[in-house]
Amino acid sequence: MSAAPTTAETAEGPSTGTPGRDSLGLLRLDIHRDEAIWKLEIMSRRGRLPGFTRTMDGCAVAAHGNPFDKILFLRALDTGEKGCVFATELRLERKMPTIAAVLFLATIWPGVLLTDSFMRMHLDFYEKWTAGGLRTWWWYVPLTAVGVVWAWFAAIKKSRKTARASAVETLRKIADELGGKIERN
User: Fold this and answer.
1) Can you list the positions of beta strands (E) in 21-147?
2) Whole-number pLDDT of residue 1
3) Torsion (CA) 92, 97, 150, 108 in degrees, nearest 10
4) Which of 29, 58, 64, 131 has the fewest CB within 10 Å, making it most exposed?
């Protein structure tokens, strides 16, 4: 009996197994890699390829996601054949997720203090509860942690889906412009 395909294999294509990264397949071109990268740079200068940068072994372009962007890397492979082959890899751009994680975590404890003062000010019975040993953070932190974790995973899932769609569209645009062919892994 064969194993059922994973969500990553069915909905989002094959994965390289590295967290935050996945492959969109191979891009085969009939031109030399330097000429291909030069043409991509021209596309970028004309505003048709956002976020283009050269790398040591190829180039990278933006893959816009919501709320977090990713970067589509095109790495040239040595095949010994005429033309060139680019391996594609989609990686999470770490700046905004890091900022979001810090903000999520930094807002929890001030919320404890704010909630505690609000509850004491507006609910007469809460003063008696806290005098009996109840601490606000005992119930506040677990409640907010569930919400923060849920929001984090929802943002990552949405980003993965939207950035992958953007990357596929960008890769098709590149293949059309350079007369190439995309081969899925």
Assistant:
1) 21-22, 26-29, 53-55, 58-63, 70-77, 84-92
2) 38
3) 160
4) 131
Number of residues written out for the chain: 185
Show the domain range for 36: 1-185
Q: 3-class DSSP state for residue 87?
A: strand
For the chain, how many structural domains are there in total?
1
DSSP symbol at 151: H
How many Cβ atoms are within 10 Å of 90's Cβ, its own excluded?
Answer: 26
Q: What is the mean pLDDT of the chain?
A: 87
CA–CA separation, 149 vs 164, rounded Å?
22
Q: Partners of 53 in the beta sheet?
A: 60
Residue 79 banded pLDDT, cuts 50, 70, 90: confident
pLDDT band at 21; cut points 50, 70, 90? low
Provide the β-strand partners of residue 21.
91
Cβ contacts of 39-46, under 8 Å, gap ≥ 24: 39/177, 39/178, 40/74, 40/174, 40/177, 40/178, 43/174, 43/177
- End-to-end, the C-alpha distance of the chain in Å comes to 23
